[in-house]
């Protein structure tokens, strides 16, 4: 079996040696421009069009991340990017759920314990104990209840918060109230104090965190965007922060990355920012998932993780 690997920044040698350990019989190489040699499987992130176009014999392509929006947007512009009929797989969890849990839980607790208010008081040298928040006033609403959203919901239930989720289909996660479809979005938003976004970027989800949705949240709500920048209308967020509807926001992803220096988000005192690091690809766990998927495909089985190209995730 032949495997080609392309990632603009990852250490290809490291990945190839991890893969080789899991798949000792495979011939694995880093793809370079001009390489039209045989390939059964391709592991890619932001692949150049010439890498996959017209390739015959390809059995599957693996995206080296959870979100496939960048590859699907390239595919829209150039339908030859993926040879017709070749399945596209993505990473399911592979260590990202734990990272998302760490991020979401630590930030929810930060807001719940009013560390943002205490930091503001500290800057004024003010010693002032504040009233505690109650968990019953701190409903967490998670947009997207898939591999990552589901795990984040589970961990916040463990911390005793009321948790609800919103997805396309209803879910049955223990202790989590499930809402589904556009018709239940308002009911989901109503009374949500912390809105966490873990949706995929698709035509249906772009701009979903806008004034209309934010105005339906509880007063003094918070927004935590962990999915993609295009989900959030940044001007609407700033308006809601300045009007007092929103108390704070923490953003990991932006409609333009790196976030330009002139963005007002950098300077807003109630916006916290991380540079798209909420959950990164962990090579060993990713390679385990990909190798096991390849083995299943080679046996004619139907492993999980295949992207539905029509749905867009
Ligand atoms: N910031 C970062 O570092 C990272 C960000 N991400 C982002 O997180 C996203 C989520 O990842 P993951 O959990 O693995 O994805 P999944 O595909 O497992 O979950 C997606 C969820 O979104 C729901 N959904 C999709 N479209 C709609 C819609 N139109 N209306 C309502 N619900 C919808 C799905 O509903 P249903 O279950 O009913 O299909 C599902 O519950 C990725 O696409 C990526 O963009 C991922 C990794 C790192
Ligand atoms: O895996 C993804 O989709 C990411 O955003 C990684 O940073």
From TrEMBL:
HAMAP family: 2_Hacid_dh_C_GhrA. Belongs to the D-isomer specific 2-hydroxyacid dehydrogenase family. GhrA subfamily. The keyword Cell wall biogenesis/degradation does not apply. Its main location: cytoplasm. The lineage of its organism: Bacteria, Pseudomonadati, Pseudomonadota, Gammaproteobacteria, Enterobacterales. The active site is at residues 228, 276. It is found in: Cytoplasm. It comes from the Bacteria. Residues 106-278 form the D-isomer specific 2-hydroxyacid dehydrogenase NAD-binding domain. CDD domains: GDH_like_2 (cd12164). Catalyzes the NADPH-dependent reduction of glyoxylate and hydroxypyruvate into glycolate and glycerate, respectively. This is Glyoxylate/hydroxypyruvate reductase A. It is an enzyme of class 1 (oxidoreductase). Keywords: Cytoplasm, NAD, NADP, Oxidoreductase. InterPro entries: D-isomer_DH_CS, D-isomer_DH_NAD-bd, GhrA_Enterobacterales, NAD(P)-bd_dom_sf.
């Amino acid at each position: 079996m032949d495997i080609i690997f392309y990632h603009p920044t990852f250490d290809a040698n490291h990945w190839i040696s991890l893969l080789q350990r899991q798949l000792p019989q495979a011939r694995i190489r880093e793809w370079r421009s001009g390489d039209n040699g045989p390939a059964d499987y391709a592991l890619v992130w932001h692949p150049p069009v010439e890498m996959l176009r017209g390739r015959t014999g390809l059995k599957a392509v693996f995206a080296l991340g959870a979100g496939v929006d960048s590859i699907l947007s390239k595919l829209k512009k150039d339908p030859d990017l993926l040879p017709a009929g070749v399945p596209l797989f993505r990473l399911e969890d592979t260590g990202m759920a734990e990272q998302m849990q760490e991020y979401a839980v630590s930030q929810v607790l930060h807001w719940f314990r009013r560390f943002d208010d205490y930091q503001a008081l500290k800057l004024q040298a003010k010693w002032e104990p504040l009233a505690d928040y109650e968990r019953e006033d701190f409903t967490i609403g998670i947009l997207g209840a898939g591999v990552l959203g589901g795990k984040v919901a589970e961990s916040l239930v463990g911390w005793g918060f009321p948790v609800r989720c919103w997805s396309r289909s209803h879910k049955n996660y223990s202790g989590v109230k499930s809402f589904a479809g556009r018709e239940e979005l308002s009911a989901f938003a109503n009374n949500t104090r912390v809105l966490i976004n873990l949706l995929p970027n698709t035509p249906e989800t772009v701009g979903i965190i806008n004034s209309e949705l934010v105005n339906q949240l509880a007063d003094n709500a918070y927004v935590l965007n962990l999915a993609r920048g295009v989900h959030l209308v940044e001007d609407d967020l700033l308006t809601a922060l300045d009007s007092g509807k929103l108390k704070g926001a923490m953003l990991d992803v932006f409609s333009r990355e790196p976030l330009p220096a002139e963005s007002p988000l950098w300077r807003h005192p109630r916006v916290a920012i991380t540079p798209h690091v909420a959950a990164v690809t962990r090579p060993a766990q990713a390679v385990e998932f990909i190798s096991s998927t390849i083995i299943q495909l080679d046996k004619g089985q139907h492993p999980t993780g295949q992207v539905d190209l029509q749905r867009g995730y």
